[in-house]
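U., I forgot to send this yesterday:
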Amino acid sequence: MRYVYVDSCSVIYLIEESPHFSTKARSFFAQNVGAHVCFSPMVRLEVLLHPLRDGNTSLQKDYEDLLGSMHLLSITDEIFDHALRLRARYRLKTPDALHLATAQHYGCSEFWTNDNRLNEAADSMAVNVFADI
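Result:
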């Protein structure tokens, strides 16, 4: 089974309407239907923030439904320690370091993102879902 980690931006563009990005995200996910898609509590925090803040229960439900179809990877103290090292070495933002450390800890073969800044830290596992936009 192919385990992939999806970061928050990919989930947001999959659910919400964004010119160019939403179409690309939906197409990319459809082309990779066989992948076992994983996420962390950090993704959940990031994607649900605005719907909760805005009282948008419909959008919140859309996110909860999508996340319910994916595999949740917990964030352990060991992952926080690895994220700290990634953040220090590659100057990543804390959320990015946590996303990447979680994916690496659980042995995901790919890290789906739109952030090319993660390429160096992620080695060959970074896949820019939106590369040709």
